[in-house]
């Protein structure tokens, strides 16, 4: 609108079959203010003012204060420069008969905020709406196939482009260029998202789907799906295995799915099928289901009701990970459970049936409500991180089939105070029971061959430990900072104690070491203990070696009582019978005095009742 005199020329021609008329309408509240409306009449294309025709008909650029433009049905093409610089026009409806909008047609229509483009339009030329500024939403017709260079460039307010054409229209790298303002999100048909994302130019924009009443597709050889927006329900129809390439075909709808209907006959739920369905609260599984794929229900934070069917045999990696409202009951018949399947779930108890033979890592990682676990006889290995940081877990029952406990399997299970130790156990890996602060002393059987780094570190309730003869090495810090540990028995297979083995075990007062040669010690093996207060019991045959060994010699040395002993000394062999109190020496040469302080049997000199020498 503007205040200006009425011009003499108010009509003319604008195409071979088009005329124009300019009307002035006084403003309702201020009669001196005139509103200008330009109306075209007729059919066919307008003149093309980029081709020397600017003098044919009316040069509208001097009426840039025109408030509105009326275009007739029958108009087929809007020519170059037709309405450039009409910076007062706020709303524009392009007739349904228009198939082409040429270069610069509406250039610099800076007030334009409402644009209606018709189905049937196929081409929008270079700079056609460039510098429109006020347009915030652009709805393209499904028939559009080409958008020219800078066609909608420098429209600062533009943030949403809807393009319902399944094949992506041809665009230039600068079609939607702008120097400032919000970024543009492109809305396309649901089924065309992957096509747009694969396009080198369209893929530069965030792409999402156009809202519809319902969406449909296939998800297996004999399975179809349908999502109904009105009831937020995903319906699966058919039978067989759920299959698809990559993510689930309804992946972009996940946040809106509140219910899922699964058919009888469904055998497999695909990988990531309902990953991120944060509004899903309940699901009923068909009795035909045998497998749940990887991450199938990952992140379904409101899912609280899901009864697994008796037909189920396999649960994939991360299947219910992050379902922190869900209490899982595993049916008998399940054979394999993947990694992180129940990570951060809600349940307080977990029973793994005897049918399960394979467990994945991080099975119940950080399940904060889990208090007790019963593992069936089919399991031979507790996987790494299986119950990592399950702070409420206080009871674990393992079968006699278990041979290995994985890395960090019970890391920081702070309240774990009831555990049975299988006699079949061979390996306890790094940090397996790290910081299990309530755990009592472990019972380690013969057959254990490996004890990893920090395996029992900061287990502050352990008071004593017996390392079996089968164990040949322990990892750094295996019992570090076990403040209550006061007695340790070390099997004869141990030849070295590495760094921090018993560091910080400041209650340690008794060590029974069965190794005839003093195990070599890392420099911090007994750091922050008091060797002078530790009673060290060693084999009689190795007594003299411990007397001179670093750190060992600082302890209160004694021999292991109540056992026979034998060894060699200066070419002689000897045997001490503790029951009879006899010492037998065999060999040849000069026989040393049996009371010689250098003789290995000298600690029992006072106990020898009969000495026999066969020389």
Overall description:
The protein has two helices and 45 strands. It has 615 residues and is mainly β. Strand 16 and strand 17 form a beta hairpin. The radius of gyration is 42 Å and the shape is elongated. The protein starts with 10 loop residues before the first strand and ends with a strand. The relative contact order is 0.03.
Question: Care to give the gist of this entry?
Answer:
By secondary structure, the protein is mostly beta strands.
Low-confidence stretches: 1-8, 53-59
Please estimate the helix content.
Answer: under 10%
State the major sheet.
Answer: 6 strands, parallel
What class do helices, strands and sheet pairing give? Answer: mainly beta
Number of helices: 2
Beta-strand residue percentage? 25-35%
Q: What would the average pLDDT be, to the nearest integer?
A: 91
- The gyration radius over C-alpha positions equals 42 Å
What's the β-strand tally? 45
Termini separation (Å)?
A: 132 Å
């Amino acid at each position: 609108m503007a205040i200006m005199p009425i011009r003499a020329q108010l009509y003319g021609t604008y195409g071979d079959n088009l005329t124009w008329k300019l009307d002035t309408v006084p403003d309702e509240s201020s009669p001196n203010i005139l509103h200008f409306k330009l109306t075209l009449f007729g059919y066919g294309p307008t003149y093309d003012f980029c081709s020397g025709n600017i003098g044919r008909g009316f040069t509208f650029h001097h009426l840039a204060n025109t408030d509105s433009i009326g275009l007739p049905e029958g108009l087929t093409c809007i020519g170059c420069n037709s309405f450039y610089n009409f910076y007062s026009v706020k709303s524009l409806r392009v007739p349904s008969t228009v198939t082409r909008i040429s270069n610069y047609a509406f250039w610099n229509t800076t007030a334009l905020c409402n644009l209606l483009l018709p189905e049937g339009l196929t081409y929008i030329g270079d700079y056609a709406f460039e510098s429109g500024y006020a347009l915030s939403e652009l709805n393209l017709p499904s028939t559009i196939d080409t958008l020219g260079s800078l066609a909608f460039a420098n429209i600062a307010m533009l943030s949403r482009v809807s393009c319902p054409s399944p094949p992506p229209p041809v665009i230039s790298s600068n079609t939607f260029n702008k120097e400032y303002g919000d970024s543009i999100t492109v809305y396309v048909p649901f089924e065309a998202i992957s096509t747009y994302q694969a396009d080198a130019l369209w893929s530069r924009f965030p792409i999402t789907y156009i809202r519809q009443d319902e969406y449909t597709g296939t998800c297996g050889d004999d399975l179809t799906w349908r999502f109904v927006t009105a009831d937020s329900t995903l319906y699966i129809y058919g039978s067989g295995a759920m299959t698809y390439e990559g993510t689930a075909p309804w992946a972009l709808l996940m946040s809106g799915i509140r219910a899922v209907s699964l058919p009888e006959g469904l055998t497999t739920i695909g990988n990531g099928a309902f990953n991120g369905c944060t509004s899903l609260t309940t699901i009923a599984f068909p009795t035909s289901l045998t497998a749940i794929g990887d991450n199938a229900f990952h992140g379904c934070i409101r899912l609280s009701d899901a009864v697994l069917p008796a037909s189920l045999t396999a649960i994939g990696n991360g299947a219910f990970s992050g379902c922190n409202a869900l209490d899982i009951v595993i049916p008998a018949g399940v054979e394999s459970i993947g990694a992180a399947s129940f990570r951060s779930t809600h349940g307080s108890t977990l029973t793994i049936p005897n049918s399960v033979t394979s467990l994945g890592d991080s099975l119940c990682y950080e399940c904060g409500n889990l208090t007790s676990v019963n593992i069936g006889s089919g399991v031979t290995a507790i996987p790494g991180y299986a119950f990592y940081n399950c702070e409420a877990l206080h009871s674990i029952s393992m079968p006699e089939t278990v041979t290995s406990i994985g890395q960090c399997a019970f890391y920081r299970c702070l309240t774990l105070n009831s555990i049975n130790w299988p006699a079949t156990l061979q390996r306890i890996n790094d940090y397996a029971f790290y910081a299990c602060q309530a755990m009592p002393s472990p019972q380690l059987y013969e057959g254990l061959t490996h004890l990893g780094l920090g395996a029992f570190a900061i287990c502050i309730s352990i008071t004593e430990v017996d390392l079996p003869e089968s164990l040949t090495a322990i990892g750094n810090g295996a019992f570090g900072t076990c403040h209550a540990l006061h007695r340790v028995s070390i099997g004869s297979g141990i030849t070295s104690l590495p760094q921090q083995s018993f560091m910080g075990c400041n209650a340690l007062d008794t060590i029974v070491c069965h190794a005839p040669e003093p195990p070599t010690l890392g420099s911090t093996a007994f750091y922050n203990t008091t060797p002078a207060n530790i009673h060290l019991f060693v084999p009689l045959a190795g007594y003299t070696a411990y007397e001179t060994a670093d750190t060992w010699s600082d302890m209160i040395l004694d021999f292991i009582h109540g056992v026979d002993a034998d060894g060699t000394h200066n070419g002689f062999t000897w045997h001490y019978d503790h029951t009879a109190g006899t010492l037998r020496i065999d060999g040849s040469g000069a026989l040393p005095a049996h009371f010689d302080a250098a003789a290995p049997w000298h600690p029992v000199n006072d106990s020898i009742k009969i000495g026999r020498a066969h020389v």
